[in-house]
Write a structure and sequence with these properties.
Elements: E1 5-11, E2 14-16, E3 19-25, E4 28-38, H1 43-59, H2 63-79, H3 81-92, H4 96-116, E5 122-125, E6 132-140, E7 143-147, H5 155-166, E8 170-174, H6 180-191, E9 199-201, H7 206-215, E10 221-225, H8 228-241, E11 244-248, E12 253-257, H9 263-275, E13 285-291, H10 295-307, H11 327-343, E14 345-349, E15 365-368, H12 375-378, E16 385-391, H13 394-402, E17 406-407, E18 409-413, H14 417-426, E19 431-434, E20 450-451, H15 463-467, E21 469-477
Parallel strand pairs: 1-4, 7-8, 7-10, 8-9, 10-11, 12-13, 12-18, 13-16, 15-16, 18-19
Antiparallel strand pairs: 1-2, 3-4, 5-6, 6-21, 14-15, 17-20
Helix pairs in contact: 2-4, 3-4, 3-6, 4-5, 9-10
This protein binds nicotinamide-adenine-dinucleotide.
Length: about 475
């Protein structure tokens, strides 16, 4: 990167001046990537006022017109795919191939929700009195607060913003500071199409701006993705204000390997599920549970495959994983790695880092020798790390898989149809998969978790339309 990008909050279509923080590339700490101009709490109400004003005109447009606008956003996003992906990779270290895929996902989401503008948004419901015509329709909520994490800096904001808009809402968006350059770039692109005030974006401290948005701003709903601790805090405030909310939170996902699994395919899926995005995915496999009989062969294959993984700069397409995103992440993940080196045994570790630059690089690691209650098997590490746990048989494997407070994604690797079905039934996770890595599902399918991973609503697909609207039941009697 040669250009230094300047990121500003946007309220009612206007960039906001503010303090300046320099952002460095986590792949190369001497490279200056951008400057964040952050704002403070007093502007939050200005942003919600602008949104409220813009929402009225937006909601009065036909679904077809709203859909056409979303289609234009998709076109603009696609035109800017390379620039947005490059900036995001340089800002938070996600490998460029993954980042391009993520922007492409954003384009798909916009197109999917653009088409909703021309679909039915209610039902005709029979009434007892034949002279009564009864129907339901979806109506907008108003102004939606959107709080997003840094780890999917394009896809997560868009999977909230696109359904919010097509349902007739306006948005006040607070991205994570660690992905605010990317958020600002998305706003640059979207502003070419959207009316002023329809999306307002605020860059600043999570606790300060976020809390003001939650506690004081006149928002009608909140969609939050981030850690479980922050999500529970947000949910409690929304509940006390009777504001509709959804919180998608942390995970401690599992890959279960049964004795009949195809080991080459399984190991390849586990590497992807565990180490892409340097393990910084809410759906990352951070526990691998294997039946006793297959454990030795699985360990051999993991040892060889992990040793050869390529870790290096995010913009180098040959690298399988990049650095972790920030100094905070580097210190937090290294804390778990130190604990693992002290209390567990190494099964597999990447040998080298393929970069001469100083960056937040962490060697991928898989360990064994701790039980399912250990901190390493219970807490979300959010880095290139997994713990291997042994099960006597299939039933014990399911018990271990479910032995977590979280419930986002769970996978099993087997060719046994009966045990596959049993796993899909008995697994306590919102997204369960057979012979596929733990991951987010496609844009047209519901995404979300059980237990402490979610407030039990779903994002994406048709489920998002339920969240971003309210149902009004209408009845009219013909007095003829
Ligand atoms: P985080 O909870 O620290 O921050 C999330 C967002 O909340 C950020 O925008 C942050 O600025 C804001 N925030 C922080 N304090 C706040 C407060 N007091 N009030 C309101 N907002 C506040 O999470 P993170 O580090 O950005 O993201 C990593 C976490 O997100 C992981 O736990 C990961 O599992 C989770 N995540 C979940 C999903 C999912 O869909 N389930 C997807 C991606 C990430």
């Amino acid at each position: 990167m040669t250009n230094v990008y300047e990121a500003y909050s946007v309220i009612n279509g206007k960039q906001q001046d503010g303090g300046a923080t320099t952002i460095y590339n986590p792949s190369n700490l001497s490279e200056h990537v951008g400057i964040l101009h952050d704002v403070s709490s007093p502007v939050v109400e200005e942003a919600t006022e602008a949104a409220k004003h813009a929402q009225q005109a937006w909601a009065s447009l036909s679904g077809l017109k709203k859909g056409a606008t979303l289609e234009n956003l998709a076109v603009k996003l696609e035109e800017n795919k390379e620039d947005i992906a490059t900036l995001a990779s340089s800002e938070m270290g996600k490998p460029i191939k993954e980042m391009k895929g993520e922007v492409a996902r954003g384009v798909q989401l916009l197109r999917y929700y653009a088409a909703e503008g021309s679909r039915s948004d209610g039902d005709v419901i029979p009434a007892a009195d034949p002279q009564v015509h009864q129907y339901s329709k979806r109506v907008p909520l108003g102004v939606v607060g959107v709080i997003t994490p840094w780890n999917f800096p394009v896809a997560i904001p868009i999977w909230k913003i696109a359904p919010a808009l097509i349902c007739g809402n306006a948005v006040v968006w607070k991205p994570a500071k660690q992905a605010a350059l990317t958020a600002s770039k998305i706003m640059d692109v979207f502003q070419e199409v959207l009316p002023a005030g329809l999306i307002n974006m605020l860059i600043g401290s999570g606790s300060q701006l976020g809390n003001t948005l939650l506690e004081k701003a006149t928002i009608d709903a909140l969609s939050f993705t981030g850690s479980t601790a922050t999500g529970l805090h947000a949910a409690a405030i929304c509940a006390s204000r009777n504001i509709k909310y959804q919180t998608e939170m942390g995970g401690k996902n599992v890959a279960v390997v049964l004795d009949d699994a195809d080991l080459d395919k399984t190991v390849s899926a586990i590497l992807s599920g565990t180490f892409t995005s340097a393990g910084q995915k809410c759906t990352a496999s951070s526990r691998i549970v294997a039946e006793k009989t297959i454990m030795p062969a699985l360990k051999d294959k993991l040892k060889t495959a992990v040793a050869e993984l390529r870790v290096g700069e995010a913009l180098d397409e040959q690298n399988f994983l990049g650095p972790v995103s920030s100094k905070d992440q580097y210190e937090k993940v290294n804390g778990y790695i130190s604990l693992a080196k002290k209390e567990a045994n190494v099964v597999a570790e990447t040998e080298t880092i393929a970069s001469d630059q100083e960056g937040y690089y962490i060697q991928p690691l898989i360990v064994e020798g701790v039980d399912a209650n250990h901190t390493l098997a219970q807490e979300e590490v959010f880095g290139p790390f997994a713990v291997l746990l042994e099960a006597e048989d299939f039933d014990e494997a399911i018990d271990i898989a479910n032995h977590t407070d979280y419930g986002l994604s769970a996978s099993i690797f087997t060719n046994d149809l009966s045990r596959s079905h049993q796993f899909l039934e008995r697994s306590e996770a919102g997204m369960v998969r057979v012979n596929l890595e733990t991951a987010g599902v496609e844009f047209q399918a519901p995404f979300g978790g059980m237990k402490m991973s979610s407030s039990h609503t779903r994002e994406q697909g048709q489920a998002a339309l339920e969240f971003y609207s309210e149902t009004k039941t209408c009845a009219i009697k013909h007095n003829g």
